[in-house]
Specification:
With 140 residues, this protein is α+β, with helices and mostly antiparallel strands. The protein is built from three helices and five strands; from the N terminus they run H-E-E-E-H-E-E-H.
């Protein structure tokens, strides 16, 4: 497996070298809004410890990530009056991974509403900020 690249976009966000719409942070994880959301309220849970994906993350870091995923999923269900939550995690290019820092997608879902395709288009900042405010309030 290739080595971890400390210059990936999520590592830069974690070092505050790039902006993000952060909605939650603790000593082990940071939660940011996806700027290319596939559903309203699409959030990403990032471990602060460097790892490419589930194949090389330390077990303690993984446990911290999953505890945060659960917390965010519960808050997202409430904040967006979701019928359910989709949790996604991709590993390596063949597995669909595009950014090589471990991260877990938390997507609020509503009956009969499909996920938007991953178009690569960045959502309007106001839309992302509004969703962040709702999720942040539910996490408080």
């Amino acid at each position: 497996m290739p080595a971890y690249d400390p210059d990936n976009i999520f590592a830069k966000i974690l070092r505050d070298e790039l902006p993000s719409e952060t909605v939650y942070e603790d000593e082990n994880t940071r939660v940011i809004m996806d700027i290319m959301p596939r559903a309203t309220g699409h959030a990403l849970v990032l471990p602060k410890a460097p790892s490419r994906n589930m194949l090389d993350i330390e077990p303690d870091a993984l446990a911290a990530v999953m505890a945060t995923v659960q917390k965010v999923a519960r808050a997202a269900k409430e904040a967006f009056a979701a019928d359910g939550i989709t949790i996604q995690q991709f590993n390596e290019s063949a597995g669909g991974q595009m950014v090589f820092h471990t991260h877990v997608h938390v997507l609020p879902r509503h009956e009969g509403v499909p996920l938007k395709p991953h178009s690569g288009e960045i959502a309007p900042k106001e839309e992302v900020a509004a969703a962040a405010a709702k999720l942040r309030a539910a996490l408080a």
